[in-house]
Amino acid sequence: MPGMRVHVVSDVHGNAEALARAGDGADALVCLGDLILFLDYADHSRGIFPDLFGTRNASRLVELRTARRFDEARELGARLWAGLDVDRATAIENAVRKQYAELFAAFPTPTYATYGNVDMPALWSEYAGPGVTVLDGQRAEIGGRVFGFVGGGLESPMRTPFEISEDEYAAKIEAVGEVDVLCTHIPPEVPDLVYDTVARRFERGSRALLDAIHRTRPRYALFGHVHQPLVRRMRIGATECVNVGHFAGTGTPWALEW
């Protein structure tokens, strides 16, 4: 099918206004996850955490996480949650449901989406309408090209909601097999692709994904997760690897045309 244009976004983090425009001029939208905004590191007043505990506590949490003082960050969170009258899981789910209702309503038709590490996959089926296809360890044909989708992240000190073991992640990569476009939330494990220049830390990338790129040679490997990467684009053998961007910050999708 000639003249195809697909827009790709990742790390939406609550930006429903821009998401509603992300499919403009495209034949399809691909979303690589992280719809939820738990805490905005640029604006500490935005997100589930400051809504519950205020901007001052949100700023303190960001300070501790940025300094890699993860145990202290967890202790702060535990103290704050203990002071609430509502169950933690219930409070988070209610807040996430509110965001998902708005975000899924903003998706154009058709949208192909997979989960990020801060998403709650169990809720997606309730909000994904007929125009949204959710895939994880699965393939879809879009305009004559085969796209493979692998969602989630690997275990990290951040302990985000959808982190899985390396074996489970590798199994999903294996299930996808050979594709034209390999779509994941996290990058392959390459230092330049996983280093965040603002957070000043290496995020988790996948060795299994890197091995699959070498082995199956997709035309493109698309991902997000790292908001301010040292390198946004890199060729690995025959594969163009692209961090499609921190959509919450840019509001601009990455375009793939053929």
Blueprint (SSEs and pairs):
Elements lengths: L4 E5 L6 H4 L8 E4 L16 H6 L1 H12 L3 H13 L5 H19 L4 E3 L7 H7 L4 E3 L3 E5 L2 E6 L2 E2 L8 E2 L1 H11 L4 E4 L6 H4 E2 L4 E2 L4 H10 L3 E4 L9 E4 L2 E5 L3 H4 L3 E4 L1
Parallel strand pairs: 1-2, 2-3, 3-4, 6-9, 7-8, 9-12, 12-14
Antiparallel strand pairs: 1-15, 5-6, 10-11, 13-14
Helix pairs in contact: 3-4
Walk me through this protein's architecture.
- By secondary structure, the protein is α/β, with parallel strands linked by helices.
- Helix content is 35%, strand content 21%.
- It has helices spanning 16-19, 48-53, 55-66, 70-82, 88-106, 121-127, 166-176, 191-194, 207-216, 247-250; strands at 5-9, 28-31, 111-113, 132-134, 138-142, 145-150, 153-154, 163-164, 181-184, 195-196, 201-202, 220-223, 233-236, 239-243, 254-257.
- The strands form 4 sheets. A 6-stranded mixed sheet has the order 5-6-9-12-14-13, with helices on one face.
- A hairpin with a 4-residue loop joins strand 10 and strand 11.
- Helix 3 runs antiparallel to helix 4.
- The longest helix is centred in the middle third of the chain and has 19 residues, at 88-106.
